Amino acid sequence: MDQNHVKNLTSRTKGLQTKKQKKASFHRQYDETYLKYGFISTCDSEAPRPLCLICSSQLSNEAIKPSKLLRHMRTRHPEFRDKPLEFFDRRKRDCEGEKRLLKTTLSTNSNALRASYLVSHRIAKTNKPFTIGEELILPACTDICREVLGNQQLKR
Ligand SMILES: [Zn+2]
Asked: Domain end: 80, 112, 147, which one?
């Protein structure tokens, strides 16, 4: 490949990229009223995507318009087509509740992981065998947690 050819190729690619960027810079925005079509928006503020409340599938950003949303509902979920806004509103709240629950569970797990790491580190420093963690420390922690936090928290 000679130098000129490479140059040409690079500028051509650049031209293509600019075109692509121009096209991509336009994003449709979600409107709250689209909930009545059974869709919520992904949290992406720049290019939100419609998320179907029935099948949880994400459509493309270009599909954020009543005609596309309606078509999805009509073709994929005809049985939900005539549901009132309240129905989708309830589903939306259920969906958000699930997300919150997942978040809490995840953070509890990572806290537990951190705690177990800290304890292992302490055991290592004392030169005691690691089995002491399972034999003594874990039951002791369970006792402490139960007494301090109550049984409800322990189950978590
Ligand atoms: Zn769907």
From this structure: 80
Are 131 and 98 contained in the same domain? Answer: yes
C-alpha–C-alpha distance, residues 19 and 14, integer Å: 9
Q: Which helix (H) or strand (E) holds 125?
A: helix 85-126
- pLDDT at residue 92 tops 70: yes
Q: How far is residue 129 CA from its own chain's centroid?
A: 41
For residue 45, the CA-to-ligand 1 centroid distance in Å is 21
Query: Into how many domains does the chain fold?
Result: 2
Higher pLDDT, 91 or 126: 91
Dist. CA 13 → ligand 1 center (Å): 37
Protein residues near ligand 1, an ion, with CB under 5 A: 52, 54-55, 76
- pLDDT tens digits, 111-133: 777 887 788 788 788 877 777 77
